[in-house]
Amino acid sequence: MKSKKLRHVLIPALSLSLLLSACNLSSGADSESGSEEVEVIRQGVNLPDPENDVIKQELDEALGFPVNLSVNPNDYENKLNVRLSAGDYPDLFQVSRAALVEYANKGLLLDLDPYMDDLKEVQDFIGEDNVEKAKVNDKVYAVTVPASIPFYTYWVRKDWLEALNMEMPKTVDDLYEVAKAFREDDPDGNGQKDTYGLTGAGVSAFQPILGAYGVGMPKSFYKEDGELVNSFHDPDMKEALTAVTKFVENDVTDPEIFSNTGNEPQQKAFQGKFGILFDGWANLTSDAYIEQYKAVDPDAEWVQLPAIEGPAGKSAGTWDIGQANGFYAIPKALEDQPEKLEKIFKLLNYVASDEGSKLVQYGIEGEHYNKEDGKIVPTDKLAEEGGYFWLYQFTGRPEMEYLSTKFSKQTEYIEASADAPRIESLNGYIDYPEGYNSADADRFSEEEMIKFISGQRDLSEYDEFLNKLDTTFNYQMMLDKAEEDIKKLDQ
């Protein structure tokens, strides 16, 4: 098997009314009554009423005009489509990469290239690489919200290891032996065979194992020896799947691993039935979660597992270095309204400035945080009131600094997750080709990968699967588009 290079990744989810015709949100492009405000819409939850929204109040005072933010937790893109189709344009609105490309190609978005000097603070804050991520046809059509950092690693019940006199697993083979022992050797000492090894949500639960064989998560694109590789077509995929299949076929994994969603794996693990969990540090290390699992078993101790080693080296999985946490676009309809554009740019530059960024991250100095020896120290009030502040982070935040400040007790886990070696996926730099039905192809490929992993389909049929994916589901279009987009990226 050829060697794969694993690189370290360092620091790199409106309230419109149900009937849009009845909503009171004004269009920044058309409404005289709303001409003094800047209307921003985005996906989100838990935004308080304006009278209780301390961030809005501070922004309004600092900027000299009102910022009207609306959020919606459900069906955001469909509702946004309805507004844009009706010519009811918000002044600033959140979009996904796919929507950014669609709207830009339809001529609905303002080309920001002529205004980059007016967004200098934004550019300095997010960095040139993130500016580039908002390009469509070589023009910048939005402000990129920089991506977060990797959160997920394996976690293991240390008390179960000690009960069975086992060491922390370091390799894929070690991990299997531990998972097998957790299933067969009664680690909780209750005299019953009612425990399992590994749980998680879907194929993703196995991504460190795939990575240890030098293979990215299904659908991922990455570089190997300077050449672009697609995980489905990676020649090492069959060997990696063989290693993963061993866990499933030998009954050491969660029988419901492929149907788990959300926090189901975490809650199952906390109930004392699983000893290895693929999850994020935020779901295991807070005092509240520790209390939760210790209420079930006072001896329970979940510890973070370092990247496991396989034939290609150590890996904690796959991380998309081309991704973003979203984009904020401005409608082209505002290009003849320089006063409105000036306000929008002022808002964006302010939340990217030192003063404004601290406000939307930590709130009000002296209330939500204090400065001690030049460092920000959160108060209890930030924990009580700051759950929605992130909704105003239109230009993102310095992720490691923010997380280490707000979750200081978890810093070691945050850093370990961020620093763990992972295969660097390039998917965020690749747009879907026109005419390609990603939903159908993704559904087919996911179903077939589950069949291979669970033993429902023999790996001798893998090439047959690839041929059907590339032809019947037109995945070859995706392969060609990836080559085209990454070639442009490398120029």
Notes on the structure:
The protein has 491 residues and is an alpha+beta fold. Helices cover 38% and strands 17% of the residues. The chain has helices at residues 54-63, 76-85, 97-105, 120-126, 128-133, 158-163, 172-184, 207-212, 237-249, 264-270, 287-296, 338-352, 354-362, 380-385, 399-406, 411-419, 438-454, 462-471, 475-490; strands at 7-8, 38-43, 67-72, 92-95, 135-136, 139-140, 143-146, 152-157, 196-199, 221-224, 227-230, 274-280, 302-304, 308-310, 313-315, 318-320, 324-329, 369-372, 375-378, 421-425. The strands form seven sheets. The chain has a five-stranded mixed beta sheet with strand order 3-2-4-17-7. A hairpin with a 2-residue loop joins strand 10 (221-224) and strand 11. The protein is globular.
Rounded to the nearest angstrom, the radius of gyration is: 24 Å
Shape field: globular
What structural class results from the helix and strand content? alpha+beta
Strand order of the largest sheet: 3-2-4-17-7
> How many strands in all?
20
Fraction of residues in H or I helices: 25-40%
